């Protein structure tokens, strides 16, 4: 009996050990993560769903959840092995979006060809009409006296430099005229003197008296008339230095004035200035001589044209603007001083690669345009932009003439790329996630924008869904 126990116990231990070892081997072979399975899987091409990356199959087909076409799965080369040419091609397709003709219509995707053309930038600014300071003058009293006659009685009246605006009586002017007449008589009497110094002295007296009259504002023509008449004028006519509109009137008839007192302010409104305020980020494009179009609400549809005559060398710290002076003719005096106007400054930028503004998406970190690389296939392209007009933008790099870019529906394409790129993809990087090529089952009809953007309607759930297809 003792002998049987000695034989039975080791025999039971051997049987149990064999059973445990066979069970462990059987379980190990069934595990998908074993080295043998991994080695076998590396020799096969696996397929996955871009919307449900946990679905993995070893042959092409449709996703059992959403019904979309499976795409080739790219394994990361963690063991240091190089990617195959086909895997590199798949990696290059990351971020691409494929749209069928029906989806393009429903998503309202339109493309235009990139062209190189002349670009003109328009700077819109506001301005105020001002007097032309080079055509302003003041009429002053050159001698103290009394305004005996006033030919201009109201502000706004038109005056001419050939017609007197007032007449002044001055005792000093009367005595100076009499001195001039006496000097003429003395010159006539002394000019026949045999003594040269005496005859020359007569000419000196006339010249001195004439100089005093001119300092009182008497013109050469008035002095000639005085000499011809032989008697002094009681009232001296006062003329304006230029023709224009009276903008200020400071005297009344009968008023006494002193030397230097201002009688009138005159402005010639045949030409005016428009002071345009340009923001500091735009004034580098402003240059002297540029053509400017002026529009006023008082005359809709009738633009005025002028040119930049001066750019002020300082900046307004409150409005952060620089003023540019536009000199322009004012036919019919339609533009009134202190009138608000709109200015359009045209800046030629030369020939450049130009696309519509809607073709460029600003993600905050970069600017992207969706280029149709092949019919129905769109790829993101980083671009650098330059100047921008109302509806066009200059492309410095990233696009070339002949490329076709999406000008509408670009945000829907971008949304499709983000959804296909997998969860957690950085929205500012269009090529950092899963492949974004879009597949769709033949039975699926695309939905219009506003639902699931750019996707087809989900088909009926496939009953052949198996847990073995899911690799968690």
Automatic annotation (TrEMBL):
Q: Which residue ranges does the record assign to the Heavy metal binding domain?
A: 47-73
Per UniProt, the ranges with Basic and acidic residues bias are 463-472
Instruction: Enumerate the GO terms in the molecular function aspect.
Output: transition metal ion binding; transmembrane transporter activity
**Key word Zinc present:** yes
Any GO BP: response to cadmium ion
What does UniProt give as GO cellular component? membrane; outer membrane-bounded periplasmic space
* Entry-linked InterPro entries: 3HB_CusB, Beta-barrel_RND_2, BSH_CusB, HMBD, MdtA-like_C, MFP_Cation_Efflux, RND_pump_MFP
Domain (CusB-like three alpha-helical bundle) ranges: 203-232
Domain (CusB-like barrel-sandwich hybrid): give its ranges. 137-267
The Multidrug resistance protein MdtA-like C-terminal permuted SH3 domain extends over: 352-409
Q: Report if keyword Chloroplast is assigned.
A: no
One Pfam annotation, family name? Answer: BSH_CusB
Family per similarity comment: Belongs to the membrane fusion protein (MFP) (TC 8.A.1) family.
> Which PANTHER family does the record match to this protein?
CATION EFFLUX SYSTEM PROTEIN CUSB
Descriptive protein name: Efflux transporter, RND family, MFP subunit
User: Which species is this record about?
Assistant: Pelobacter propionicus (strain DSM 2379 / NBRC 103807 / OttBd1)
């Amino acid at each position: 009996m003792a002998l049987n126990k000695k034989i039975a116990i080791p025999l039971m231990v051997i049987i149990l050990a064999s059973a445990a070892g066979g069970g462990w081997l059987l379980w190990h072979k069934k595990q998908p993560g074993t080295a043998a399975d991994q080695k076998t899987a590396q020799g096969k091409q696996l397929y996955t769903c871009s919307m449900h990356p946990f679905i993995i199959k070893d042959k092409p087909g449709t996703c059992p959840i959403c019904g979309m076409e499976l795409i080739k799965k790219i394994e990361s080369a963690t063991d240091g092995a190089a990617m195959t040419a086909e895997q590199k091609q798949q990696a290059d397709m990351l971020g691409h979006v494929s749209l069928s003709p029906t989806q393009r219509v429903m998503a309202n995707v339109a493309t235009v060809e990139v062209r190189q053309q002349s670009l003109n930038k328009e700077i819109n600014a506001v301005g105020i009409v001002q007097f032309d300071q080079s055509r302003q003058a003041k009429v002053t009293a050159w001698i103290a006296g009394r305004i005996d006659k006033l030919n201009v009685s109201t502000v706004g009246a038109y005056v001419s430099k050939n017609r007197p605006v007032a007449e002044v009586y001055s005792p000093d002017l009367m005595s100076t005229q009499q001195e001039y007449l006496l000097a003429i008589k003395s010159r006539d009497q002394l000019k026949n003197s045999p003594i040269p110094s005496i005859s020359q002295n007569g000419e000196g007296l006339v010249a001195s008296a004439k100089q005093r009259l001119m300092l009182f504002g008497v013109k050469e023509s008035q002095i000639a008339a005085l000499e011809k008449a032989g008697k002094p004028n009681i009232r001296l006519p006062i003329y304006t230095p230029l023709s224009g509109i009276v903008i200020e009137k400071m005297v009344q008839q009968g008023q006494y004035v002193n030397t230097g007192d201002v009688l009138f302010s005159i402005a010639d409104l045949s030409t005016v200035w428009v002071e345009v305020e340009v923001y500091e980020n735009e004034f580098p494009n402003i240059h002297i001589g540029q053509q400017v179009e002026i529009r006023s609400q008082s005359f809709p549809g009738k633009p005025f044209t002028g040119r930049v005559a001066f750019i002020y060398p300082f900046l307004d710290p409150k409005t952060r603007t620089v003023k540019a002076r536009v000199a322009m003719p004012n036919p019919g005096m339609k533009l009134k001083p202190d009138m608000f106007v709109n200015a359009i400054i045209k800046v030629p930028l030369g020939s450049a690669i130009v696309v519509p503004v809607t073709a460029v998406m600003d993600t905050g970190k970069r600017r992207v345009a969706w280029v149709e690389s092949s019919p129905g296939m769109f790829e993101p392209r980083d671009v650098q932009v330059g100047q921008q007009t109302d509806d066009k933008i200059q492309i410095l790099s990233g696009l070339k003439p002949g490329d076709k870019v999406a000008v509408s529906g670009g945000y829907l394409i971008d949304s499709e790329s983000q959804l296909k790129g997998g969860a957690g993809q950085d929205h500012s990087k269009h090529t950092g996630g899963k492949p974004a090529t879009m597949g769709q089952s033949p039975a699926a009809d695309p939905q219009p924008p506003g639902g699931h953007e750019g996707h087809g309607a989900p088909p009926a759930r496939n009953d052949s869904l198996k847990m073995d297809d899911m690799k968690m």
